[in-house]
Amino acid sequence: MSEQQQAVFGIQKIYLKDMSLEIPNAPQVFLERETPHVDIKIHNEARPLEPQGLFEVVLTVTVTAKLKEKTVFLVEAAQAGIFEIRNILQQDLDAVLGIVCPNTLLPYAREAVASTVTRAGFPPVVLQHMSFETIYQQRLQQMQQPQAGASPAN
Prior knowledge:
single chain; alpha+beta; Bacterial Protein-export protein SecB; four-stranded antiparallel β-sheet; 2 helices; 4 strands
């Protein structure tokens, strides 16, 4: 009789994998009085590592601030973590990688972005809380919908 193994989730390492800052129109942008439009994009990806049961998850945040067509600043932070995840079903693994891991990384990405923008001479950009569960559920629904116009293969 085999015993069911207990699920394992652990954080092995959290690190800033990549960070970039561009202020292409400095110093003129510091003389502007208007408030720039800020656009934030967040992307999450995961990949398995060796030994088996380890995964790297990278949460990439891109913040672009513009005044009309002029870029005020562009910040991109790739906050990463190595997670140990063992003894769970595949659908549960996908949820952990798409929800739990990004939720763990978001506060670190938030600090990296706010700190970098402040050090660049601008008011901090504070990333708001995100529902990675909602994003994950939407992605699942999109994957389950049949593609429009797809025809069966002959």
